[in-house]
């Protein structure tokens, strides 16, 4: 999967451990004081946002 390079000036591109995230400025408050976590379970795994 490739990152669409057509981001605009209201987008923030952040790279963490080789993974690029694009966040629009109007949505950035959702990501204040949270951590992206991956958890494996009986029925598979998934990502979640965890409050810090």
Folded structure, characterized:
- The strands form two sheets. Strands 1-2 form a two-stranded antiparallel ribbon.
- With 52 residues, the chain is an all-beta fold.
- The chain is extended and about 40 Å long.
- It starts with 10 loop residues before the first strand and ends with a strand.
- Strand 1 and strand 2 form a beta hairpin.
- Helix content is 0%, strand content 54%.
Please outline the helices and strands.
Layout: E1 11-16, E2 19-24, E3 34-41, E4 44-51
Question: Brief overview, please?
Answer:
The protein has 52 residues and is mostly beta strands. The chain has strands at residues 11-16, 19-24, 34-41, 44-51.
**Which structural class is indicated by helix and strand composition?**
mainly beta
SS field, number of helical segments? 0
N-to-C terminal Cα separation, in Å?
30 Å
- The order of strands across the largest sheet is 1-2
Rough outline: extended
Question: Mean pLDDT, rounded to whole units?
Answer: 84
Strand content range: over 45%
Number of domains: 1
Major sheet: size, sense and barrel closure?
A: 2 strands, antiparallel
* C-alpha Rg (nearest Å): 13 Å
Question: Runs with pLDDT <50, length 5+?
Answer: none
Task: List SSEs in N-to-C order.
Answer: EEEE
Secondary structure tally: strands: 4
Helix content: under 10%
Question: Could you name the key traits of this structure?
Answer:
single chain, two-stranded antiparallel sheet, extended, 4 strands, two-stranded antiparallel ribbon, 54% strand, mainly beta, 52 residues
